[in-house]
Amino acid sequence: MENQNLLSSIGTIAQERLARRKFLSQAGLLGLGAAAATITFGGSKSAFADETEPAAETAQEVAQSKDTVAEIFTAALIAEDLATTFYYNGLVGAVIQDPNLAGPGGSATHVTSSGNVGNVDYIRAALTQEIHHAQLFRSLLGMTHGAQDPVQTFHFPARTFDNLANFTGILDALENAFIGAYLCAIQEFAAKSANLQGGDGAWLQSGDKKYSSEQLDYFAKVSASIMGIEAEHRVLGRVISNSNPANNLNYEGVDGLNAVYNGPKSAVAALTPFLKPSTGPGYSFATALAKQSTVSLPVMGSYPAM
Predict the structure, then answer these.
(1) CB atoms near residue 134 (< 10 Å)
(2) What span, in angstroms and rounded, lies between the C-alpha atoms of 128 and 264?
(3) Residue 115 CA from chain centroid, whole number
(4) Which of 33, 134, 172, 300 could form a disulfide with 80 if both were Cys (CB 3.0 to 4.6 A apart)?
């Protein structure tokens, strides 16, 4: 019942409870020192807020401490469904006929001589990967099919799928947000595990207490595995848009995020514009999922073993 209530209310939570983040704003990277300091291994000290810590770090830890495991999974599922809808519509929209993709007159499954097969295949593979990620989080939430997912329509700015510049601009913004979200998830799962091992689990929500420290560590490992794929998407998107160097970062960043689900700097808050009709035209997740096999490209691999 707790999960059902969570899933049914996600739209309201995203629309009303969380502060609105300026659409597609880039808030910069969180300092490595502050990020590392939020995790304390061993001992009895909590990995979350301390009165002597800087205000920004304390705010981050408070926001993270409110995120339950189920909420982290739910936020990830929404993000992966958003990505599925995005990549599918990129493959079937007008943008696919750009010379850097399938070329004039081309399609996802028919790249013309003036197009670029490799670039098209990247998007087709990315679609498959996002679907696989969503399936994992769906199973972790006890769901069996996409019709049960909390968000079924995503909104994109007008003309997102009309030309390459618009498409890759949104791609870059989305993938940076996804990378940031998974980095926060890794940190949160690690902190939950560290606190549990240290005997300080009083801050855990009731639903979190069913997980062992080993399971929480594993969730961090899986999050890292997915984050790596999202980082590949970010770089290959820059390849498509001829942004050089495509691999332009020494370290992936959190994109201004400090939590996954709760708070004004959470991943959910950052992605809220894509849930709002005022952002632009709506695109059906169900349609993308039902028709993905016509344009997706199979790829190898599964989530890492525990």
Answers:
(1) 24
(2) 31
(3) 29
(4) 134
